[in-house]
Task: inverse folding
């Protein structure tokens, strides 16, 4: 990988992935794109080249590819689960239309492609604990439908046209750098901001709802490691299960309360997002990723909570938070 283009670069994953790519490849070698331009002081704009891009517009994408000449695309642009349920037709158009546009460009220009999938690709008929790499996938959301179809499309373009397409099934992603984007696991980000700013949080999921989660540094590292992996070792290529930790809203609140004793949580359950969460796995089996390209998380729940609060709690005299706290042993 020498030069990269990132779609959806202003989103939760894109914000930090772009910075990691620029640190590794050089700022001018990573083109960040999004449907809307963030403020000029945001890292995806201030740290290197940025371009406006509707990923469903093949001509606009081709123009960026001609000008920037990437050998790898990280295609992150998508409507997430809760937003997708409110706008299912738009989610279909953006998530699948955009992916087909990018796959065609990757085929024509022989560009490697990373595309994230999600635990949303599973459904209520999927085994919820140690969910296998290969298992029944019958999602009940439009977001999940587009993710299953996306996994199959990427496999098809690899087997039919030789496109070097690779991807991960991400669990919920937790980050201090970018706001949530309309996902069902957003509570796990919102709760930290509310704990620091207000000392209380109202959660939209039931207190005992367990979901798979991952801290953003691990999510970014997993994408980079997969794209750098020896292709001869990749039996699955697309949609590798990856995981790092599992917890419930009540369990996470208890961990935060250990650091912020006055913090309190209450619950106003959103039936739509609760139904989505109930259809997702509680714990993934990521043994294929560990075996095929050496995946292993660095952050467990305690290390993640410490690092989130290190970055969000105001520092005396305007001091900045540390770059990161030391990750604990791999979470499970």
Result:
């Amino acid at each position: 990988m020498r030069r990269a283009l990132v779609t959806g670069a202003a989103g939760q994953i894109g914000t930090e992935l772009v910075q990691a790519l620029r640190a590794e490849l050089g700022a001018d070698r990573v083109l960040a794109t999004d449907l809307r331009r963030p403020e000029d002081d945001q890292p995806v704009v201030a740290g290197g080249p940025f371009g406006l891009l509707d990923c469903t517009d093949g001509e606009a994408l081709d123009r960026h590819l001609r000008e920037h000449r990437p050998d790898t695309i990280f295609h992150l642009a998508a409507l997430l689960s809760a937003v997708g349920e409110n706008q299912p037709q738009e989610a279909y158009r953006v998530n699948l239309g955009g992916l087909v546009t990018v796959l065609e460009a990757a085929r024509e220009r022989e560009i490697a492609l990373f595309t994230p999938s999600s635990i949303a690709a599973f459904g209520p008929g999927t085994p919820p604990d140690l969910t296998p790499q290969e298992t029944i996938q019958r999602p009940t959301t439009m977001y999940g439908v587009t993710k299953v179809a996306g996994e199959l499309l990427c496999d098809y373009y690899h087997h039919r046209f030789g496109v070097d397409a690779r991807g991960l099934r991400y669990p919920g992603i937790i980050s201090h750098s970018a706001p949530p984007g309309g996902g069902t696991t957003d509570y796990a980000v919102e709760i930290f901001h509310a704990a620091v700013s207000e000392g209380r949080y109202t959660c939209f999921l039931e207190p005992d709802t367990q979901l798979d989660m991952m801290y953003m540094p691990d999510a970014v590292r997993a994408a980079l490691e997969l794209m750098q992996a020896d292709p001869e070792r990749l039996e699955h290529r697309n949609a590798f299960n990856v995981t790092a930790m599992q917890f419930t809203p009540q369990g996470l609140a208890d961990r935060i309360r250990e650091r912020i004793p006055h913090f309190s949580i209450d619950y106003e359950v959103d039936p739509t997002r609760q139904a989505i969460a109930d259809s997702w796995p509680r714990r993934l089996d990521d043994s294929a990723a560990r075996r095929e390209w050496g995946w292993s998380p660095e952050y467990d729940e305690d290390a993640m909570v410490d690092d989130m609060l290190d970055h969000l709690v105001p520092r005396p005299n305007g001091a900045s938070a540390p770059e990161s706290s030391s990750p604990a042993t791999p979470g499970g």
